[in-house]
Sequence to fold (199 residues):
Amino acid sequence: MLVRTYQPISFELDLPLLFSCASRYIRYQILSVYGHFNPLTLRLCQVSAGYFLSDLGMICWFYPSLGGLEYVVHHSLSAIAVAYSMYTGEGQLYTFMVLISEVTTPEINMRWFLDTAGLKRSYAYLINGVVIFFAWLVARILLFIYMFYHVSLHYDQVIHMHIFGILLVFGVPAALGVMNLMWFGKIIKGLKKNLSKRV
Fold:
């Protein structure tokens, strides 16, 4: 039970807030998808890479109790993409578009806490499930669709990146998108099950 509490709750609540507050600044500062550096984007990449690496370390240390292979793949791909963007400055716009999807992390962790505390039948658990459904739909499904649309619109810029950057721009969001759809199916199934028990 104490394994997951290792992560500071305040960090998990502050990270999505940091990304959403910075998004207004980033939107006007990142004019292209390659070769851009500024102190704020560098700091956000550093924080994100640290978050993914620390979470990956915990997942590997307590494997498989904190998550299976899909969690290892998710965190590894994310850490590699963020680190690449941080060191080269390429693809930071797409890195931050994908990082916005981490706003679902506090809700997922809250669900784990409620489950571990034996509150699966509480209204808090039901409300958490509904919040996860909508947050996941917006941040991990619709945003990814928009990101792929944006990549297609700016393909002429993307192909000027280094080959590894191009592979990351197409490969990482595609892999994460497939996992997001898989997890979204589980979220829908769980929400239906929880709602049917209430009726």
Q: What stands out?
A: The chain has one domain: 8-198.
